[in-house]
Prior knowledge:
Layout: H1 2-8, E1 19-24, E2 29-39, E3 42-48, E4 54-56, H2 73-78, H3 84-90, E5 97-98, E6 110-113, E7 117-125, E8 129-134, E9 138-143, H4 150-154, E10 156-157, H5 160-171, H6 175-364, H7 370-378, H8 380-393, H9 395-404, H10 406-413, H11 415-423, H12 425-433, H13 435-448
Parallel strand pairs: 5-6
Antiparallel strand pairs: 1-2, 2-3, 3-4, 5-10, 6-7, 7-8, 8-9
Helix pairs in contact: 6-8, 6-10, 6-11, 6-12, 6-13
Amino acid sequence: MDQIFESHFGGNQSSNGGETEAYCPKCRADTTHVILESYGDEIRRVQCGVCGDIHSFKPPRGRDDESPEPLSVSRRKSMKKLSWLDGVHTYDVNNAVRYSPKALLQLHQIVVHPTFGVGYVSELMGDNKAEVMFRSDLTRLLVHGRGESADERRGERVSGEEVRQLLGLEMGPSPEEIAAERERRQAEEDAEKRAAAEQRKVLEAQRREEERLRRESERDRKRKEKEDEKRRKEEERERVKLEKEQARNAAKQAKEDEKRRKEEERTRAAEQKRLDAEQKKQDAITAKETAKREAEERKKAQEAEKAKKVQEKEAGRKAKEAEKAKKAKDAEKAKEKAKKVKDAEKAKKAKDAEKAKKQKAPAKKPVAKKSAAKKPLAKKPAAKKPAAKKPAAKKPVVKKAATKKPAAKKPLAKKPAAKKPLAKKPAAKKPAAKKPAAKKPVKKPGKRK
Length: 449
């Protein structure tokens, strides 16, 4: 968390971005690196300035005794190396180390590998690699010295006692020890065989004794089974005899029960038949009464329905007659109103004509001759022609009357519609003609009496 906080939120980064010498595992050499992350004076992550690889900080290796200059092939071949057996017995086992890529190995140091066993460092090479010789002179090239701290590079030490035990396991026992071990195993096998033979003898004796006991028990069991079988047969005979006796008694009892049951069944059937006959009679009487009551109720309902229909027809007839009287009255009123309007229009027209005539009369007075004055009297029809044209001049007056009484003129236009019901009088009288048919149901109750 401290690293995240400092690298992302401005912690102690005074050395970030600077340069330092470090070992690059990709270049396999000491190169200049750029510092990416640090905590105080400790550098944590760097980036190689040659290949650009980002990795954790590794201190520069240099060319000291810990990582010597690689040897040439010819010189390596000329070097004399001890065999594995001579090496593990020659070199110090108390300075042994458990193999790890982080541990730094030394020349002729005993190494304990988890897979290959115990070996020794026969040669150190460049790039932190070492040649280690294991059992049967098997050489393996292993990396070492990759640890970052001093503890990691120092590695885990192995005690001399543990190394000797591992070597003892790997090298195996000596020929004398093998011969002694073989004799010991042979003696153990002979002893086991003798013990097994004695055990077999004892088991055989036990088996014979068990077989004798088994035969005796088998004879006892068979004798007991015979006795049990004999007793079982006697019991079976007694049981069969008892069952037959019980069967005879049960059959006799069943016959008596059947006879009694049949008698009771006949008595019960006769009683049930009598009850059914009485019930049928009662049901028939009830059904007749119910049918009679229902018939009377239906007749009453029919009579009520017929009376209701007659009343409805009478009410319809009266309503139609009232409607006709009302329509006739309305038509009469409309006629009278139209007549009054026409009379008023005629009176108004006559009044207008009289007024026009009076207006023309003063213009004819200056004529001196009576004969000339009489001429217009003789020619009244000709004098009346202008009067006949006066209504055309007085059209606005007529229109005013028409505009003032629009409601009075509408009934005049609808007179034919008012007269239609009058034309259908015979249809309205048809219900009255069917009155005798409506009275027939009323007479029927009298006949039933």
